[in-house]
Amino acid sequence: AQKITQTQPGMFVQEKEAVTLDCTYDTSDPSYGLFWYKQPSSGEMIFLIYQGSYDQQNATEGRYSLNFQKARKSANLVISASQLGDSAMYFCAMREELGEKLTFGTGTRLTIIP
Amino acid sequence: EAQVTQNPRYLITVTGKKLTVTCSQNMNHEYMSWYRQDPGLGLRQIYYSMNVEVTDKGDVPEGYKVSRKEKRNFPLILESPSPNQTSLYFCASNLSGGLYNEQFFGPGTRLTVL
Lengths: 114, 114
Description:
The complex is a heterodimer of chains A (114) and B (114). Chain A has strands at 4-5, 10-14, 19-21, 24-25, 32-39, 46-52, 60-61, 64-69, 74-79, 88-96, 103-104, 108-113. Chain A has 114 residues and is an all-beta fold. Chain A starts with a strand and ends with a strand. In chain B, strands 2, 4, 5, 6, 9, 10 and 11 form a seven-stranded mixed sheet that branches. Chain B has a four-stranded antiparallel sheet with strand order 1-3-8-7, with no helix packed on it.
């Protein structure tokens, strides 16, 4: 079974609008961490934001916030006031406490339209 | 500057010709990993290492070898490359185990096996 599911292969969003990238996960481990990475066309992986399973508040980092709904096992990334430079591939990933790896979703390609 | 470096960045080779992709980190991280990225599949872990001389298989280890003789280096070896190993490869490192440990990624190595 997929541990991380990103159901939106591609999205087009108008510049300055907010965008939500979906991510659902599957784990029986009560302790886990969720990550979002950005991969621009140049290829590097850029860490954006982290949410721990026991964190009481949703994580925020500048224009990025994570809409964490534990009961629904979802960890959606919200980008406010999108910019052309936000066009990239976005990956959701999870680390379980007993694991030594990040398990990645298949990614969402976001395109910001001027 | 704290970083993970990989060499080469681009490589075109032929089936069966042994190759090594080097990876080095200057952050004194204990954990290092190799991932491969393929379209529609996201990133998948090949091997990881928790410390010098300690390595273990990830999700897709077939056809690859690794070694960790020094803390800073974690080379990926393809003894007999095949076309299905054509992919984008990332080396990553993180300080230690634990949920919140941001993985720092290298710039990637694009490998083509003819």
